[in-house]
Design goal:
The protein folds into 2 domains: about 190 residues, no CATH class; about 100 residues, SH3 type barrels, CATH 2.30.30.40. It is about 10% helix and about 45% strand. The protein has 4 helices and 23 strands. A 7-stranded mixed beta sheet has the order 4-1-7-8-15-9-12, with helices on one face. Strands 22-21-20-17-23 form a 5-stranded antiparallel beta sheet, with no helix packed on it. A 4-stranded antiparallel beta sheet has the order 3-2-5-6, with no helix packed on it. The longest helix is centred in the first third of the chain and has 16 residues. The chain is globular. It starts with a helix and ends with a strand.
C-alpha cells in the first residue's frame, strides 16, 4: 500500500511540475506544492515546513502566509518572497517562483482553485503584476488583467501573460467543471528596463559628445533602429495616438503586436503619432515618414 501511495505521489508531482493544476480530491485536507529557483526554505505562518521542491497533501484548509527564503550560496544574491494564499479543502495550490537579486527582476505565479456554485461550468480569474498585462488563452487574446474568463472549456490550457518592458510568462493550467481557476502572476522586468540610464538612452536623447569624441568609424551617420527616439508633441490631424507613459517617460515602438518583437524606436510620454490600425490591445502608428510600428494600447490613447 505504501509503495502504491508513493507511486501516485510521484506521478502527481510529475504532472504538477509541468505547470498544471487540478483538484485534489482525496480527503478534506488541502494540498500545496511549491517550486523555486534557487532552492528555498518554506515557511507557513512563520513555521518552517521544509524546502523546495515542497509538497504536502495534508494541510488544514485556511488562509496562510507563505515565505520563501533562498538557501546556500546559490541563493545568496536572491531576495525572499512572501505572500498570502488561501488553501481550499480538496484542492491543490501550486506556487512557482524565480527569485533574483531584486524584486523587479523576480517572477512567479500562484495557481489555485475554488468551488463554483454552477457545477457545470469552468472559469478562470487572472490578476497580474504589473496590472493591465495582456492575457492570452490558447493563442487567443482575452484582454487586460485583472480579467475573468467564463465558460472555459474543461481540460488543459496555455496561459500567456505579457506586458511591454516585461518578460513574457507562459503557464499550463487545467480547467475543471465546477471550479474557478485563479492565477496570480508576477512578471519580471526586462534587463534594459531595470538599469539606470544607459549609454543607449543617453545617445538616443543627446546627439552630442559621443559622436564628436568617438572614432569616426564608430559614429554612424544615423542612429540604429533601437536608439531612434521620437519627439513630436505638436499638432497632428486625427486620428492619432497620444503616448501616456509617465512612469518610464517613454514606450517602445515594436515591429509587430507582440512584446517579443523587435524594437524600432522609442516614443516619449506626450508624443502624438499618426494612427494606422488596431490589433488586440496594440495600436499601429506611423513613427517616421512611411514607417509604421506597434505600441501597446496600455500606454496610449486613441483620438479619432
Amino acid at each position: 500500500m505504501r509503495k502504491l501511495l508513493l507511486a501516485v505521489l510521484v506521478m502527481i508531482s510529475a504532472v504538477l511540475l509541468s505547470g498544471c493544476t487540478l483538484p485534489f480530491t482525496q480527503g478534506k485536507k488541502a494540498a500545496l506544492q511549491v517550486t523555486s529557483n534557487p532552492k528555498t526554505t518554506v515557511f507557513l505562518n512563520d513555521e518552517h515546513v521544509g524546502s523546495t521542491p515542497f509538497f504536502d497533501e495534508k494541510i488544514k484548509p485556511g488562509d496562510y502566509r507563505i515565505k520563501l527564503v533562498p538557501e546556500g550560496s546559490s541563493g545568496g544574491q536572491a531576495v525572499s518572497w512572501e505572500g498570502q494564499v488561501k488553501l481550499v479543502s480538496g484542492v491543490l495550490t501550486v506556487i512557482s517562483r524565480d527569485l533574483a537579486e531584486t524584486e523587479e527582476k523576480s517572477s512567479g505565479y500562484v495557481v489555485t482553485m475554488e468551488p463554483k456554485t454552477d457545477k457545470t461550468q469552468a472559469s478562470m480569474a487572472i490578476v497580474t503584476l504589473p496590472d493591465g498585462a495582456v492575457v492570452t488563452l490558447d493563442g487567443e487574446p482575452k484582454g487586460f488583467a485583472p480579467i475573468n474568463v467564463d465558460n472555459t472549456s474543461e481540460g488543459e490550457h496555455l496561459l500567456v501573460i505579457s506586458s511591454p518592458g516585461y518578460v513574457e510568462k507562459s503557464i499550463k493550467a487545467k480547467a475543471v467543471k465546477g471550479y474557478k481557476l485563479s492565477a496570480s502572476v508576477q512578471l519580471s522586468k526586462m534587463p534594459e528596463e531595470i538599469a539606470s540610464p544607459t549609454p543607449e538612452a543617453t545617445a538616443s536623447a543627446e546627439p552630442k559628445p559621443a559622436a564628436s569624441t568617438a572614432p569616426k568609424s564608430s559614429a554612424s551617420p544615423k542612429p540604429s533602429s533601437s536608439s531612434t527616439t521620437i519627439t513630436n508633441t505638436g499638432d497632428i490631424d486625427k486620428p492619432y495616438v497620444l503616448i501616456k507613459s509617465p512612469d518610464t517617460g517613454w514606450v517602445r515602438v515594436r515591429s509587430s503586436a507582440s512584446t517579443s518583437s523587435d524594437e524600432l524606436a522609442k516614443a516619449n510620454d506626450g508624443e502624438k503619432l499618426k494612427y494606422v490600425s488596431s490589433d488586440n490591445g496594440w495600436y499601429e502608428v506611423e513613427y517616421e515618414e512611411d514607417s509604421t510600428g506597434w505600441i501597446s494600447a496600455k500606454y496610449a490613447e486613441l483620438y479619432e
